[in-house]
Design a protein that fits this description.
Elements lengths: L13 H18 L7 H27 L3 E6 L4 E8 L6 E3 L12 E3 L11 E7 L8 E4 L5 E3 L7 E10 L2 E8 L5 E3 L1
Antiparallel strand pairs: 1-2, 1-6, 2-3, 2-4, 5-8, 6-7, 8-9, 9-10
Length: 184
Amino acid sequence: MRNVPFFRQAAYTLTELVIVVAILAVVAAIAVPVTRSSETDRKIDLIANEFATAMRFARSESIRTSKPHGFRFLTNQYRIRVFAADTTVAPWTWLWDVYHPVDKNLYDYTFPADLVGSTAPVTHTPVYRSSCSRPGAVYFDDSGTPWCLEPETALLDSYQLDIVIGAQRVTVNLDGITGRVTVL
């Protein structure tokens, strides 16, 4: 009978594997950013995303249809509405018959009443290159560039919505040059 050489295969022990998994779990727990979990925090994120989505939708509709679309933030009602502009008449007429692409309702979002306290939860800061008589109303031309609705010749530099509830603050920015909407 012939002797067959026995080769030992390299392997890890169960103890070594448990230690490595434990170290990875600790590193992952430290590296993953802390997520906000309170109900108010989720609501403020939802509100900011609703406002940002309305702005993005108005811009994309103006590019898609080659007709001016925009949004209007109503400060006293904490509400954002998307509109189309009828440019066949002077001055332009706002058409509030723009429908949400998913739920098929009019594109009209109002801040939840249970979050409105003694201070204004939403403020907006539009900055135009010339005077604008309706600073809360912004329309986009067919290339996606944002403008003041009255007069139509006032180019937007920036538009900022600040949403503050308690200690939480979220900002929605609209860049006047690129038309990009970001939530910070």
